[in-house]
Amino acid sequence: MTRLFPLDPRSATGKAKELLDGLSRRGAGPMVLTMGHSPALLRGYLDLSRAMKAATLPRALTERVSIAVGPDGWLSPAGLEAYGEVWRHCERAGRAGRG
């Protein structure tokens, strides 16, 4: 049973409208449209999504992140290990001037 419903882009106003209008011509899926009810959440999601598309993480690390955010989540041993690896990768990138 759906409890949260997508925002109709035609009825969006303010910051939500601005963010949704900035998406590609294909539009946005139901998850993104539902986030439109909270412009701060939508902005955070879009920023993270764009950053991940621009990132160049090793394939093994991206696979570990996928495991970490899978069904067992961050509290599983694999999730905690992946989180530590992501953190170390970001620290190295920051020291190299890429963060």
- Can you tell me the number of structural domains? 2
Distance between the termini: 41 Å
- Helix share bin: 55-70%
Q: Oligomeric status of the shown chains?
A: single chain
Number of beta strands: 0
Structural class: mainly alpha
Order of helices and strands: HHHHH
Note the beta-strand portion.
under 5%
Biggest β-sheet description: none
Radius of gyration, in angstroms, nearest whole number: 17 Å
List low-confidence stretches: none
Number of helices in the DSSP assignment: 5
Describe the structure.
The protein has 99 residues and is mostly helical. The protein has 2 domains: 9-54, no CATH class; 59-95, no CATH class. It contains 5 helices and no strands. It has helices at 14-21, 30-35, 39-54, 59-68, 77-95. It is elongated. 9% of the residues are buried.
Write the layout of secondary structure elements.
Layout: H1 14-21, H2 30-35, H3 39-54, H4 59-68, H5 77-95
Helix pairs in contact: 4-5
Key features of this structure:
mainly alpha; elongated; 99 residues; 5 helices
Summary, kept brief:
This protein has 99 residues and is mainly alpha-helical. It has five helices and no strands. The longest helix is centred in the last third of the chain and has 19 residues.
